[in-house]
Amino acid sequence: MTSRLLQNFKGGRALVVIGRNGREGALESTLAKLGVTTEYPEIVGGRAQIDVGGLQPERDILFVDGDLEGAVAIEVNPASRLPPVPVIGLVGVEAPSRLKALVNLGATSFLRKPVHGGAVYTSLFMGINQFLLRSDMYARVQDLEGRRRGRRAVIRAVILLMQENGLDEEGAYSQLRRASMRARQNLELYCEEFLSRRANPPDIPGRATSTTLQGGTKQAM
Amino acid sequence: MARKHYRIGVMFSTTGSYSVVARSMLNGALLAFQEIAEAGGAVALEPVVVNPSGDLVRYRALSLELLGAGIRQVVGCYTSSSRKEVIPCFEKFDGLLWYPSHYEGFESSDNVIYTGASPNQHVLPLVDYLASRVGARAFCVGSNYIWAWENNRIFREALTARRGTVVAERYLSVGDTEFDQVISAILDQRPDFVFNNLIGTSAYAFFRAFRAACRARGIDQVNEIPVASCTLSEPELAEIGADAVDGHLSSSVYFSSLESPANAAFIQAYARAFPDGPVSSADAEASYIAVKLLAATLEQAGIDDARTVRAAVANQRLAAPQGEVRIDPQTHHAWLTPRIARSALNGQFEVLLEARNPIAPDPYLVQSSPRFASAMRSPVLRVVQS
Q1: Distance CA A48, CA A41 (A)
Q2: Of A103, B252, B281, B283, which residue has the fewest beta carbons closer than 10 angstroms?
């Protein structure tokens, strides 16, 4: 699984949640040079008005002013700690509590206020590519977790073949491995299905399925 | 009405390893100052010339000296490393650097006006030409600093997208002239062409040594392993010398052989003003353009503070020796006309291809590359000479 590097941000949309007091500096003009349009969601009652359901990770980047406490409420995946779109923190007061709030929102890059034009490309590059990298890593972790859970099925399938066919452990394992390769499935998934086929089907609930083993909702750009 | 007087910094390394090009850049700038004085317009510009001698520390010190003396506009720098070294000074004092050289892009400081070519105006057209007419296997050589690193990266990505390959990349220190190992590696690999990003004396020594090594092995270098560059200009052909001057490909927005009344006037005035050389170059023309645009901008702005000048420079136009040039209001880079040429024995370039019109600058390759780096698009050039 190789993460591709994004270096052209054309067509992107920046949602900038910030108090419009001039501290946004050169952010909008520099983003425009990079082909990224800027929108400033309205802040009503201390909360930015963002259509979270309409956010698209391949298009949107969220810039969040760390000095606006609680202005952004987005759901961060509890397992991956990834937000729905890349988040870049805008840092004014460099206090641990405010940095922590940005980290908890899943920020993968930061920009100091007032924003200096020369820092925007680097921050965007890091923020988006770290988001992509973490998305890929999370998908990989999920895949490995699924395979780890599936090792029990491998052991059971090996024992079953040894008992039924009189094979030694190595022979049984090799047979299963060859069969899984022919079926173009990983070994764990193949063994799960191998056991399912041989089990007394109707009354054994909760059998793991390929869906749970495949896992992972990859959030790539 | 009295002419408004402005002191303008002019900072080129007229001594050091890349002094030949820098002296032609100084000449280009001084010619523009001279013409502006003779024209007697609303502004009088006084050049304050300094020479950092190719030393990055001196670039910074001299920039601070000029800005500290109240000078707000400086025309200067050739290498990207020197430009990047002085940009913080210009940002601190809110001065403007008019940077008159082609460069590798991926920069857009509010304190710089870029009158040289962006990567979509030099390296991408060259990749198109090489991949379609020369071959698919490239060997890259370059001076060991940001220009060569980044220009090679853009080149590699664009060539790879056209199913070409870079067989190797080799870097040498600026000023290094020991090429035996690199040339031996090139001849072992036998690429279809060499992509050269060496600058100054290193480049001249490489052209001579490579031609000699090929000749010693019975290789027709020009036709079998041509060398292509985005930097090579006429004063440098003179430095290479008659023995190895011909057959080199160059991608640039200006060649002194361009046939137009504006260029004829420029060449004539340049030769009259600087009979001892070095002859004109693309970067000399970019320096000339920078001073001319600066004068027009100051005339419009009526004041030389950076904020006002930055606003006034947007869409400034000039009938330059290369054709029409104008400043892009968003990026403060120039619309320029890409061309591909081949050097001849007379020390001039024969233009092979050129764009029909000036091309918009795209310093971040936003319009010229896909979202994830693979295929890159470049301007379409028309055939001038096959």
Answers
A1: 6
A2: A103
pLDDT tens-place string over residues A13-36: 999 999 877 777 789 999 999 999
Given CB atoms, is B331 within the 8 Å cutoff of chain A?
Answer: yes
Same domain, A119 and A17: yes
Residue range(s) defining the domain that contains residue A189: 146-212
Task: Report the residue count for chain B.
Answer: 386
Name the B residues in 74-93 with CB < 8 Å from any A CB: 87, 91
For Cα atoms B147, B152, B157, give the angle at the middle one, nearest 5 degrees.
135
Using DSSP, state whether B76 is helix, strand or coil: strand
Residues A159 and A113 in one domain: no
Say yes or no: A24 and A80 in one domain.
yes
Tens-place pLDDT, residues B295-338: 999 999 999 999 999 999 998 999 999 999 999 999 999 999 99
How far is the C-alpha of B186 from the C-alpha of B34, rounded, in Å? 46
- What is the length of chain A? 221
| Residue of chain B whose Cα is closest to the Cα of A35 | B366
Answer whether residue A8 is part of any domain: no
Interface confidence (ipTM) of the complex: 0.78
Q: How many CB pairs under 8 A join A and B?
A: 47
- A63 neighbors A124 (Cβ within 8 angstroms): no
